[in-house]
Amino acid sequence: MSTPVRAGWLFAYDWDRHALDRLDSVPGMACFDHGGFDLFTFPSNSALVGFDLERFAATQAARGRCCGWRAVLSHHEQFGALAAALVAEKLGLPGATPESILAAQHKLHARRILQQAAAEANLSFTELDVSYGERIPDDLIFPAYAKPVKAAFSVLARRVDSRESLQQHTRFGRRELWVIRRLVEPFERVSQTRLPEAGSTHRMLLEEPVPPHVPQYNLDGWVQNGEVHALGVVDAVMVPGTQAFMRWELPSRLESNIQVRALDVARRFLDAIGYHHGFFNLEFFYDGATDRLSVIECNPRLASQFGDLYRRVLGWDAHAMSVALALGEDPLQVPRAAPTAGVAASLVYRAFAIGAVPPAPTAAQRTAFAQHHPGGLLFSFPKRGHALARDFKWTGSHRYGIVHLGGRNREHLREQAKQASALLGWPAPYLDHLVEPSPTDIPSVWGTPWPDLLGATEQ
User: Fold this and answer.
1) How many domains are there within the chain?
2) Residue 107, in any domain of the structure
3) Sheet architecture: strand order including 158-160
4) What is the reported pTM?
């Protein structure tokens, strides 16, 4: 038997860790060396103190030379995707260029590029050129959607309806500023060297808000030799009246012609930033009433949370395909398995008040879940103290768990979710039977067009 090739897998946690453990047992699969740390677990996240991306990449590249890596990959948004690109560059391995990763993850720069490549799919935007806590200018237009120029997990992304609410949103204590700076600064240092024209990431971006009734979708795919391929589209279902995700579902309900339009937008954007090798995830809105498709952002990585859904419903193993791509092989040559479900969902359990957070599952509850749902996945994210309070301030809620399940159809899936939730003592994430607002129910302010701020931003 031939010796399996070795590869580096950086920042593999949660869904990636589950996939890595599963792939380790696949005959002929690469052997993986792991590097990185978990941002959400102590003491692992203590590595954030003094973390430097270039230094980390140099260390991993030296390790890769010693171990004979044939590939390096990561699906981690905050640090991993950029780190993998830096390592691949140093080792001469297949991968995206660091500049293309920077261009996609720098949200203000990405908006500018999208305006050139696919203006019809862009949202109006402007930068908020003030430091955190400084006085907010009086001449801004509200409502607006505020987000950091560099962030992940929807941290600090929120609709603001007035200057006062934006001022409050950007005022932080010393402990919060310490966390923010250490999350952003590693990216900032590389960006200032590799993509200085993008400008600083230590600021926020204001975007044209999208009405809350407009649904959100995720297009997943990959690029190889500059050719863009689609994997599929996953639907986002929100907690009614909020911007918080309640679950993601596959297969999508979105019409195929709209999916083709989204792929065309992705193709033009990815080509414009020079992203010619790797998986991608395009988040977008589609308003059927106006036939408008609007890009939220394009992530230069596999959306690893959705990999399990594609495996259940379509038989495509997105993680194995990403390994093939990192090796320079054709992802379509990865064997396709028989689907195990007609529909699958990533169910998000969250609370909107500290007093409403249920306890983490006990060992007995986890055992019962595994016995009744042997194919299910369970992730628990318990927090307390400052970390829990920060969740509510930065995202407006606390995500304390995620469960993946499949079903014969949507009704069967709903029943599976109710049973699993009862076993865990968590409320099932199925609130969308409530009457959601129609376009005519939205306050008239949503109909007020945002001014064209693009010209001022581009100058």
Assistant:
1) 3
2) no
3) 125-128, 204-207, 144-148, 158-160
4) 0.90
